[in-house]
Amino acid sequence: MLIIEEGRLFGRGVITSEVNRKHPKRRRFSLLCSCGIEYEVDLCNLTKPSSPVQSCGCYQTEMAMKKNSVDLSGQRFGMLLVDSLSERVNGTVRWDCICDCGGTCSRTSESLRSKFISSCGCNIRGSNSIHWNPELTLGEREIQRNTPENKEWSLLIKKKDNFTCQKCLDNTGGNLVSHHILSYSKYKEARYDIDNGITLCEECHKEFHHLYGYMKFTDSDLWEWIKDE
């Protein structure tokens, strides 16, 4: 067993204690970030060779703010040409974009730079999708969430989040879910918006819906739950 002593530094965080395990085979630790916030992380996510957890989240926020300070107006991302700044809220910057198909959309700086977004969504809708099955009716596809758009949206969300649960940071694979930030059933217009998705593991996904249900939850509910350890 790897010996982890109190006071050991991981990025900006200092180990303060070992805590009860959520998963029997994993060790979990409480750390104090240099910004003063306490947080918990599984040992495997502290010591993994690529992209280990560096802080309570403040480091990622600072990096995102630096990236979001860049003016993307006039730049091209796939089929999208950035037209103008749409809004800047809580460190998140959205841009109004014009697609080569003639459509328009709003995208965050993060989603544009991810290289997983190449259009307003026109290239993954209906028969344009590689997953299109002409044997199914629209009603059957929507009920089963078996639409080509949903399959491709789900994969894009996981790629965007580096195939890692954004709650517990589980990245073992095979148990990840692409969760709609705004309800799939209630907000049909946002079903395939890349900014309306986040990756969760199956356990965290069930926990969220157990607490907030399936229809009435808001984006604020999700972000408060993500931060709550």
Plain-language structure description:
This protein has 229 residues and is α+β, with helices and mostly antiparallel strands. It has 3 domains: 9-63, no CATH class; 70-120, no CATH class; 136-229, no CATH class. It is 27% helix and 24% strand. A 4-stranded antiparallel β-sheet has the order 1-2-3-4. Strands 5-6-7-8 form a 4-stranded antiparallel β-sheet. The longest helix has 13 residues, at 148-160. The protein is globular and about 60 Å long. The mean pLDDT is 80.
List keywords for this structure.
10 strands; alpha+beta; 3 domains; 229 residues
SSE layout:
Layout: E1 9-10, E2 13-19, E3 28-33, E4 38-42, H1 43-47, H2 58-68, E5 76-77, E6 80-89, E7 92-99, E8 104-108, H3 109-113, H4 138-144, H5 148-160, E9 176-180, E10 197-201, H6 202-212, H7 219-227
Antiparallel strand pairs: 1-2, 2-3, 3-4, 5-6, 6-7, 7-8, 9-10
In short:
This protein has 229 residues and is of the alpha+beta class.
Span of the ends, CA to CA? 25 Å
Number of structural units classed as domains:
3
Rg measurement, Å: 20 Å
SSE ordering: EEEEHHEEEEHHHEEHH
Rounded mean pLDDT is: 80
Label the overall shape.
globular
Largest sheet geometry: 4 strands, antiparallel
Instruction: Give the % helix.
Output: 25-40%
User: Low-confidence segments, ≥5 residues, pLDDT <50?
Assistant: none
Tell me the total number of β-strands. 10
Q: Which class do the helix and strand fractions yield?
A: alpha+beta
Strand composition percent: 15-25%
Q: Strand order of the main beta sheet, please?
A: 1-2-3-4
Q: Helix tally?
A: 7
